[in-house]
Amino acid sequence: MKVSSVLIALAIAILAVSMWALANRPEAEPSWPERIQGFSFSPFQEGQSPLEKIYPTADQIDADLSLLQSKTYAIRTYTVEDRLFEIPEMAKQHDINVAFGVWIDRNWERNRADMEVFLKTAARSTNIVRTIVGNEVLLRGELTPEELTVYLEWARQELDIPVSTAEPWHVWVEHHELAEHVDYLAVHMLPYWEGVHIDQAVDYVVQKIELLKSLFPEKPIVIAEVGWPSNGRTRQSAVATPANQATFLRRFLDRAEKEKYIYYVMEAFDQTWKHVTEGAVGAYWGVYDVKRQEKFPFTLPIVPIANWTVLAGLSVVIALITFAILLIDSQTLGNRGRGFLAVLAFAVASVMVWVVYDYLHQYLTLRTVIVGMVMITGMIGVIVVLLTEAHEWAEARWIIRLRRPFQPVALADSELPMVSVHVAAYNEPPAMVIETLNALAELDYPRFEVVVVDNNTKERQVWEPVEAHCRRLGGRFRFFHEDPLAGFKAGALNFALKHTDPAAEIIAVIDSDYTVAPNWLLDLVPQFKDAGTGIVQAPQDYRDGTENAFKAMCYAEYRGFFFIGMVTRNERNAIIQHGTMTLIRRKVLDAVGGWSEWCITEDAELGLRIFEQGYEAAYVSQSYGLGLMPDTFGDYKKQRYRWAYGAMQILRRHWSKLTGRHRSRLRSGQRYHFIAGWLPWIADGANLMFNLAALLWSLAMILDPLHVDPPLVVFSILPLALFAFKIGKLVYLYRTRVDATLSQTLAASLAGLALTHTIAKAVLSGLVTRNKPFFRTPKMAGASALVKALAVSLEEIFLLAAMLGAATAIGKIHPMDTLDMKLWVLVLFVQSMPYAATLLMALISGFPRLPALLGDRRHRRAA
């Protein structure tokens, strides 16, 4: 590793650790009192739940009371189920008073039975100082105020101790009449649920207590619940963390002593069963965790993550390893590029360590473990794709010099090898093919032939004019019409190879719609002077990019691959060979067995086989030929489907050699580019699966809003981060490397997004099937009508409607008061953008007379 890389890594590591330290500065807060007034007390242990009728034993309850004996004067209970009605007598043995509660809901029969137990216990227990009939009954909408009043008056008639019911402050305000039937106000003060920021939370409690005092001057006020969760979803400005829980409670207890409040801290112990009724946050209100361990310091300064130094160190180690991997074989990368990768590596490592740490500090069930495994797998996948995209970004923008620049080679005419130019055609417009042949006839090259193979065209009027034109062009041009001929384009090219002049040393291939520059062969064939060169490749380029708006957008999208991706791949001799404007050494082509007829992207597969034999490829980013783009959006999609499906065919067939399990002469850089280069397409396939899962999850949120929360924030952050990064990369590189205008950049982005669903389907199909039929991209087919353009995009239109409909429905049904809810709706909107792009591209292609308003075309065509 270069000294500059070490210095960059050291500087970023210091910065990263400093950020960890800054986020975990100790904050001095008032100390916890030696003994507080009261705790809300639910003695359920891990694995126990009143919902499943699994209750704590007497010994477990007694142990909890023993733990609290020296820490509180009183406890508050909620139910008399099972043996929980015995808590007052057990608490008496530990010198603890009790605010005794009974649960009330719609079950009238159970209510009556529980009330009888409740009243009998309250009448005989001397340490019960107040009673609470029902907990948030009105808030839940289980009873009306009139129905609740019946139970309250029953208790007041039977007991000579104060009676109330527990509700949040705003319920007391809304049901002012309820105060007439209680002896005091049992008020819940939980500012987290109302989205109050931690710094305003205690003042918020005080303000609401003062409001209640002004409204009910004759009634004593008891804060029956006051607390803050240590984990859970962010609600507006309220963030649930152990540090915030400690901060709120220590500040509140200090203020409560000054204000002379009567209170019960919510709550003594974490109750894992509450995630069923209150969502994930319900399990984390305890001052002690489910193992009965303190969750935060009672007197020391509060640090958000107590062991942050360990996490910071771990993130630095992971970042350094990641950075070192990114810098393998990067001797030409400048310091700006190294700094960019270092910052990203440290940011990614820190986020990954924090996410895993945070997740492992939750109470894990089988469900959460499965969700966690999915989350971590998805996170790793997103990070890998993001880092490979970043690597290409850095090498496309900040290399100091090209390691494998195209160097012109001059040869005398007598040294130039003979070239056989192969043109495969199927049912192509004869005028177009004739134009291609005329351009070949103008080649400024001394020794070449042209072999035209028309395979399987049925109509004689299509191929016979081409045959006749070949005769007119002379003996260099030979025409073959074969029907039937198996193997699609690969079969036609293998047929041409068999009929090639034995003297030809170089095979050149162009598509039947390409008009080549006269100096194409003269400029590029001399590259084969190096005996190790097996391929010489020039980019695909197009001459109809100004025909209309649709083609202009397609043209803008194509340029990125040939003038960014291929240039970067060429640095490690890992270009994707494409089957036009390509030159191949004949003996190499013969040695590897010709074109593969099993693969629908036979050109890219051939290039990989040639690399596996140890040969070099030369790539020039200068254009030497201009072809025609697909005329319709449907054809554009089918072309990309073929490319993506073929890539998966290649990946599956060559996986053992790409991973090094089987021997080949591939170098590590070539293996990297062939795997990493297709990762974004694989990510599109995974993204489609994510979208389908997102719609199912959203449907559950719509149908059962009370019990189905939005996914964890990390599930929203991952796709949003990757989407933003990819768009940022595309815009930056198009502006700086492709020299595109802003309108061309936006057009490329839109056209690329419009193909996302097509690529995703091709990838998923290519991973599970083997043989999809070859699809020839029609040329000069005429633009489709609007209805036809929309018809080929029905899947995307349906998914767009589903995504937007789900986002709208969730926004109306659920309160948008939590960060995860807002992010999830944002995810649905963002994930719908590729489908919206598809719809827009379909509409544009349906109007072929829309002018191309994307600035000047900038062909890099040789003179």
UniProtKB/TrEMBL annotation:
Matching InterPro entries: GH, Glycosyltr_2/OpgH_subfam, Nucleotide-diphossugar_trans
EC number, UniProt record: 2.4.1.336
Keyword Plastid: no
Keyword annotations of the record: Glycosyltransferase, Magnesium, Membrane, Signal, Transferase, Transmembrane, Transmembrane helix
Membrane topology: Multi-pass membrane protein
Highest taxon listed in the record's lineage: Bacteria
Catalytic activity: a 1,2-diacyl-sn-glycerol + UDP-alpha-D-glucose = a 1,2-diacyl-3-O-(beta-D-glucopyranosyl)-sn-glycerol + UDP + H(+)
PANTHER family tied to this protein: BETA-(1-3)-GLUCOSYL TRANSFERASE, CELLULOSE SYNTHASE CATALYTIC SUBUNIT A [UDP-FORMING]
Protein name: Beta-monoglucosyldiacylglycerol synthase
Species assigned in the record: Desulfosarcina widdelii
This protein's encoding gene: ndvB
